[in-house]
Write a structure and sequence with these properties.
Blueprint (H helix, E strand, L loop, with lengths): L4 E9 L4 E8 L6 E3 L2 E3 L7 H13 L2 E13 L2 E12 L8 H4 L5 E8 L2 H4 L7 H13 L21 E2 L4
Parallel strand pairs: 1-6, 5-8
Antiparallel strand pairs: 1-4, 2-3, 2-7, 5-6
Family: Belongs to the Nudix hydrolase family.
Protein name: NUDIX domain-containing protein
Length: about 170
């Protein structure tokens, strides 16, 4: 088994109740969507610090993290999916490598209504993230009422995972 990469992503809720996605368009591939976020770097002071850095790089944004929705295993990566309110952003002012390197293809900001119906209209990647978000939306349409998975559950300090077991 290889090294597991730690990644952070956010369901970023806007003032009008939409969530922000980034549509990826790469030559020779079907378009797909991702939640803002990325890899945890050695200089990051924890998962939430990494998420704040990624939001700044990808959206020139600032967010208030509300909770951890869950953790999903996707291939060699473990993805920590947070729920947050986006306080400000300026997609044109982003500074991450995706804003500077044309070889990565296009990155297009794509706000969507936070509904199960809207989620079915996109190919959200990795699929385990889409499954987690769809599951949360079957429980409630107000994700802010869901329990924060950062808190220990039943004597365990690890949030439940969705995806293949290691």
């Amino acid at each position: 088994m290889g090294v597991i990469g730690e990644r952070v992503r956010a369901v970023l809720i806007t003032g009008d109740g939409h969530f922000l996605t980034i549509k990826r368009v790469r030559p020779g591939q079907a378009p797909y969507w991702v939640l803002p976020g990325g890899g945890v770097e050695p200089a990051d002071d924890g998962l939430e610090a990494a998420l704040h850095r990624e939001i700044q790089e990808e959206l020139a944004g600032q967010a208030e993290i509300h909770s951890l929705l869950g953790v999903v295993d996707s291939g060699p990566d473990r993805q920590h999916i947070y729920l947050a309110r986006i306080l400000r952003y300026d997609f044109a002012a982003r500074s991450g490598p995706e804003a500077r390197e044309d070889v990565r293809g296009e990155y297009l900001l794509h706000p969507l209504p936070l509904t199960s119906a809207a989620l079915t209209t996109i190919a959200l990647m990795p699929p385990q993230v889409a499954t987690l978000l769809a599951h949360c939306l079957t429980i409630t349409d107000d994700l802010f009422t869901l329990p924060d998975k950062r808190a220990p559950r039943h004597g365990s300090d690890r949030p439940p995972t969705f995806g293949p077991r290691r």
